């Protein structure tokens, strides 16, 4: 299965989601490869840091740019899960990744600048589905304020209703320091001592994969 994490805008926690999904899949005992196609190399650097922890399950990582479609299809024949971190813009890597992916997760901050990317992204998704009708696209709200009184989440979900091709997930990723700490250590939040973040990631994995990833 090819899981593409991509967006039209940087700063939305895209790489954070990619490495955490890969770490959770590895922690559940699956063969997973992380493909970093963002030249900022956040995911690749995380994977290098992870190699220093011999006690952690292995996450294989490669870097590929430009047309990544054939690479992803080849990797899908060798790994159960291929997780792709695409650049945070309308890039060749994003578009060719969509041509091969089974699932695309689009992280959004609950802010107007992020939501303003939706009309163009909706066009890109429509074009991608002409080539890849099996592609499923889901929106994930990230860096959500921990204060439940702030109504940005509800407002963002209402905005997303106008774009049914990009259906929102019910899972939320809140703005927690532990996500940044985990990246620095080459870990996923499931490998950190923060029960709230661990529960967030558990819910996201269950929703993305319909509870089919766990071997327990």
Helix-strand layout with pairing:
Layout: E1 2-7, H1 14-27, E2 32-37, H2 42-50, E3 60-63, H3 69-76, E4 81-88, H4 92-100, E5 103-108, H5 112-115, H6 118-131, E6 136-144, H7 152-160, E7 167-174, H8 177-185, H9 195-209
Parallel strand pairs: 1-4, 1-5, 2-3, 2-4, 5-6, 6-7
Helix pairs in contact: 1-2, 3-4
Total number of beta strands? 7
Total helix count? 9
Structural class, by secondary structure, is alpha/beta
Secondary-structure element order, N to C: EHEHEHEHEHHEHEHH
Unreliable stretches covering 5 or more consecutive residues: none
Radius of gyration: 16 Å
Largest sheet: 7 strands, parallel
Strand order of the largest sheet: 3-2-4-1-5-6-7
Distance between the termini: 20 Å
Helix content: 40-55%
**What do the pLDDT scores average to?**
92
What percentage of amino acids are in beta strands? 15-25%
Shape: globular
Describe it for me?
With 216 residues, the chain is an alpha/beta fold. The chain is built from nine helices and seven strands. The longest helix has 15 residues. The model has no long low-confidence stretch (mean pLDDT 92).
Task: Record keyword descriptors for this entry.
seven-stranded parallel β-sheet, 216 residues
Structure, briefly:
The protein has about 220 residues and is an alpha/beta fold. The protein is built from nine helices and seven strands, in the order βαβαβαβαβααβαβαα. The protein starts with a strand and ends in a 7-residue tail after the last helix.
């Amino acid at each position: 299965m090819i899981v593409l994490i991509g967006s039209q805008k940087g700063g939305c926690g895209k790489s954070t989601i990619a490495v955490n999904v890969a770490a959770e899949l590895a922690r559940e005992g699956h063969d997973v490869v992380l493909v970093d196609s963002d030249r900022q190399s956040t995911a690749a650097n995380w994977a290098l840091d992870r190699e220093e922890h011999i006690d952690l399950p292995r996450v294989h990582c490669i870097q590929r740019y430009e047309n990544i479609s054939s690479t992803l299809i080849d990797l899908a024949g060798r790994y159960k899960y291929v997780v792709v971190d695409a650049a945070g813009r309308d890039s060749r890597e994003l578009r060719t990744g969509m041509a091969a992916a089974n699932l695309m997760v689009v992280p959004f901050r609950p802010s107007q600048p992020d939501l303003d990317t939706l009309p163009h992204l909706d066009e890109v998704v429509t074009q991608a589905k002409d080539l890849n009708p099996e592609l499923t696209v889901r929106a994930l709200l990230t860096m959500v304020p921990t204060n439940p009184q702030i109504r940005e989440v509800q407002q963002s979900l209402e905005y997303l209703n106008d774009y049914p091709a990009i259906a929102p997930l019910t899972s939320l990723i809140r703005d927690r320091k532990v996500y940044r700490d985990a990246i620095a250590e080459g870990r996923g939040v499931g490998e950190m001592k923060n029960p709230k973040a661990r529960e967030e990631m558990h819910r996201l994995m269950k929703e993305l994969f319909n509870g089919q990833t766990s071997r327990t």
